[in-house]
Design brief:
Elements (H helix, E strand, L loop, with lengths): L6 E2 L13 H5 L9 H4 L3 E7 L13 E6 L5 E6 L3 E6 L4 E7 L6 E5 L5 E5 L7 E5 L4 E6 L6 E6 L5 E6 L3 E6 L7 E4 L5 E4 L5 E6 L4 E6 L9 E4 L16 E6 L5 E6 L3 E6 L5 E6 L22 E3 L5 E5 L4 E5 L9 E2 L3 E3 L7 E4 L6 E4 L3 E6 L4
Parallel strand pairs: 1-2, 22-26
Antiparallel strand pairs: 2-30, 3-4, 4-5, 5-6, 7-8, 8-9, 9-10, 11-12, 12-13, 13-14, 15-16, 16-17, 17-18, 19-20, 20-21, 21-22, 23-24, 24-25, 25-27, 28-29, 29-30
Length: 376
């Protein structure tokens, strides 16, 4: 790793000559149509973004969430100092800092328009806020939750979205109106995700050890499937069945459902019947972050994710970046070891894969861009 160059974002980076461009993003010798499988083992930490506005002994804030816009041009973080940071992926620079001091911020998500976002409040109330980033003005408040929001998931084809809250509801919203369009009264819903078609959504209930799947067109009816995590536990620790769930995500090919855990592995479930396809073992254990809805340490919006091809799962750890190949053959008790360990000394507590380019973002207290090494 010592031979891998890493750019450091300087205090004057917003006006400096860009040090990272789209050619470099894809690798100088890697075509824009490169398959993930051709480059996944070659990712290297390439650009580090320390917060240059942290001065006078103030501690570096924690990154709570990472998201990319649909074109893959922008990366956004929400942070524990109640700011939203926006970065240019093509040029490898910090572009904008937005303040949300009055309401706090977490779970920031781009809508399908890159100039607007939604995010959950952390103080004052439990409203979800819809913000125009070009002038930092609120477009709308989505009010109704009476407990902290723990998850936001945007519909893949429209600006409808689902929220989960500690008020024992999951709510469905249309971004064009402040009133929710549907409510599910559930036992501590914590995480939610859409399947790639947008016809099905899942809600995770760690208190009952289950994941519920609903037909979006008939969600008022009973769930179409109930996945029993206890039954699909495999070799996981008993406490991982009912606590510590960090992320819920469908693969883009619709075959798998990833249930992240802050314990020693993640659950890779069959998206059709909920059976355990593999227990993704983390050799060094998990990160120091709390799971969604837990108190104590700083929360993370997700320490694992799928690559866009649906084949690979990536996860942070207390050091290094772990990559599993879902086409690999699990060993005893369906344990699947990482196919690759991408070395990095920093904890990767939050992770996201750019939807358009072979580019990964990880963070704990500093954002880090990973790119394929064309010489690997």
């Amino acid at each position: 790793m010592s031979s891998t160059l890493m750019d450091i974002d300087e205090p004057s980076s917003a006006t400096a000559t860009p040090s990272l461009n789209i050619t470099r993003t894809l690798g100088t010798s890697v075509p824009s149509t490169s398959r993930v499988t051709d480059v996944i083992s070659t990712f290297r930490p390439t650009k580090l973004f320390p917060r240059d506005d942290i001065k006078d002994g103030k501690p570096q804030p924690y990154v709570l969430s990472i998201d990319f816009d649909d074109p893959g041009d922008l990366c956004m973080t929400s942070e524990s100092d109640e700011t939203i940071q926006i970065y240019s992926c093509k040029e490898g620079r910090h572009d904008k800092s937005l303040l949300s001091k009055k309401y706090g911020v977490k779970l920031a998500k781009f809508t399908h328009t890159s100039s607007s976002i939604i995010y959950a409040s952390t103080k004052q109330n439990d409203a979800i806020r819809y913000l125009a980033t070009h002038d930092n003005s609120f477009i709308r408040y989505f009010e109704g939750h009476e407990g902290a929001v723990t998850s936001l998931a945007l519909h893949p084809g429209s600006d409808n979205f689902i929220s989960c809250s500690q008020d024992n509801t999951a709510r469905i919203w249309n971004i064009g109106t402040k009133q929710w369009t549907g409510t599910l009264n559930l036992n501590k819903p914590t995480l939610t995700a859409w399947d790639p078609s947008g016809n099905v959504f899942a809600v995770a209930l760690p208190a009952s050890g289950s994941v519920l799947l609903y037909d979006y067109r008939n969600y008022q009816k009973a769930p179409v499937h109930i996945f029993d995590v206890l039954k699909a536990r495999g070799p996981a620790e008993p406490e991982a069945v009912f606590t510590g769930w960090t992320n819920l995500e469908f693969s883009n090919d619709g075959k798998h459902l990833l249930l992240g855990s802050r314990f020693n592995g993640h659950f890779l479930l069959d998206a059709f019947d909920g059976s355990l396809k593999a227990y993704l073992k983390k050799p060094g254990g998990g990160t120091s972050r709390s799971a969604a809805g837990e108190t104590g340490a700083v929360e993370s919006s997700g320490d694992c994710c799928f690559a866009p091809d649906g084949r690979y799962v990536l996860s942070g750890s207390n050091k290094d970046l772990l990559v599993w190949d879902t086409m690999g053959t699990p060993g005893n008790s369906k344990v699947l070891e990482p196919a690759f360990v991408l070395e990095e000394k920093r904890q990767a507590a939050v992770i996201a894969y750019n939807p358009r380019y072979n580019m990964i973002a990880t963070a704990d207290q500093e954002l880090l861009f990973w790119l394929p090494d064309p010489h690997a």
